[in-house]
Amino acid sequence: MRLVMIGAPASGKGTQAHKLTRHFNLDHISTGEMLRAEEAKRSELGMVVESYLKRGQLVPDSLVVKLVGERLAHNHLAQGFILDGFPRTLNQALALDQALGEVGQAIDAALLIEVPDSAVLERITGRRADPETGRIYHLKFSPPPPEILHRLEQRDDDTAEVMQARLNTYHERIAPVVAHYRDRGQLITVDGSPTPDAVFQELLHQLTERHPNS
Ligand code: AP5
Q1: Which of 4, 6, 11, 15 to mutate to test the pocket of ligand 1 (most atoms within 8 A of CB)?
Q2: Is 214 part of any domain?
Q3: pLDDT above 90: residue 211
Q4: Distance (Å, whole) CA 183 – CA 186
Q5: How many independent structural domains does the chain possess?
């Protein structure tokens, strides 16, 4: 199963990608996580990446396409993957189609999680990540066990100011990506407002309807 996951900041892409990864035994490839890992290295590339992340802007297509291409080549494409947060521009979508086409493959579905902008701020400010397990929690919606509270981390770009920039960027760039997958009959849209488990069940339902042997 080869999936891409699209959605606004804090729409639940990471949360659902973790669940789908476990369910279908996929390789979870998050461009946000890859870019934050580059940033943490404090390399020249990391400094360039940081300058975009802290402003809530997209990192240039050439850079992200290269990172994703290397990651896909490094893994066994046949195993299946879920791309979380990629593509975010039409150029990225076309580059992915081309890379997969060269090895005789294509995306099985593009999953779009829709949430109203009004829900995003509360989700972002309450998000915490566990650096030991990589698990994502929310202080209100998905509370962590009290004994690990002390070690949870908040992302640098999870502030109200940067969030607004991330949201604006998303709305400016995503329409042609959505149209691209809709035109190819690959788009699955779900409402991301219900609980994470309910969203997951809806994703599974739509995916298995479309791909009964998955
Ligand atoms: P990235 O890390 O991908 O950030 P994002 O798109 O802003 O998405 P988030 O990670 O904030 O949210 P999410 O949708 O994964 O939600 P989550 O499941 O965590 O990218 C960061 C930056 O990197 C970008 O701004 C850009 O600069 C750059 N970048 C990345 N990819 C790029 C690309 N392809 N091209 C160029 N630049 C790129 O959930 C959020 C919170 O809500 C959590 O606390 C969770 O517990 C909670 N929650 C989840 N689901 C629910 C629910 N159903 N109900 C209630 N709470 C919920």
Answers
A1: 15
A2: no
A3: no
A4: 8
A5: 1
